[in-house]
Amino acid sequence: MILIADSGSTKANWCLIGREREVLYFGTEGYNPYYVDSQYIRQSLHSALPADVPRAEVTEVHFYGAGCEPSTEMVISQALGALFERAAISVGSDLEAAAKALLGNQPGFAAILGTGTNTCIYDGATVTHSIDPLGYMLGDEGSGSYIGKKLLIAYCREYLPLPMRQQFLSTYGLTKEKIMERVYKDPLANRFCAGFAKFVKQHLDDDFVRGLAEDAFHDFFNALVCHYPGYASYTLNCVGSIAFHFADMLKETAAHYGMATGRIIQNPIQGLAEYYQQAMTVESK
């Protein structure tokens, strides 16, 4: 049996693939090794795992997540090793998960557009080139936090047309002072900003609001995508809530830069399940 996880900092999606390639999906809280230690993960998972996950029969665990890199992967692997004593444990980044879910064994370009942003070139097995997105304060162009931040700036500076300002105020009840306090004092300000991408999506019929989103995706291409050599020879493949909900606008922007669109999915876990099911099929032949 193979157990797969795609984890963010707040929630994780899991998939158990049985001997006959049957699939069980379930969720737990997220485990970012920058924020939680092995003991916490072990105790949390021990309580959260469904009863129909036979730990002793799991032979492989593949954990992909935010914050997973060589310096932190031991936090995850120790916790999983204690729970799945007979399993081989592998730990990878959320970007690797996105690439495998979107491209499988094929080379290409993959991106994450969710709360944050990430991009890479993938050779069909590993990530070979990635441009640092720099996080929400310096970069993350095209992400939910970036789009939300553009809306907040327009609202606080009163660039947002009056009807939209009134709609924003009635929806959130936030003054400029409250926004400034949340952005500069909240340790999770990126999530706070990303929450306003929903307002942008709901009001794309307003020319000004639509322009904010369009600018964000142009910034995404100019800051990240177009800096990959020969980027236009690849298709644009994206995973994440922003990519999924703004798919039409993202496709239009890609076409503007001479890039065809491939797959756009909201969540990588199903694609990861297909990736490992295919690997099981190949191994059984």
Automatic annotation (TrEMBL):
CDD domains xrefs: ASKHA_NBD_PG1100-like (cd24079)
Domain of life: Bacteria
InterPro entries: ATPase_NBD, Euk-type_GlcNAc_Kinase
Identification of the protein by name: ATPase
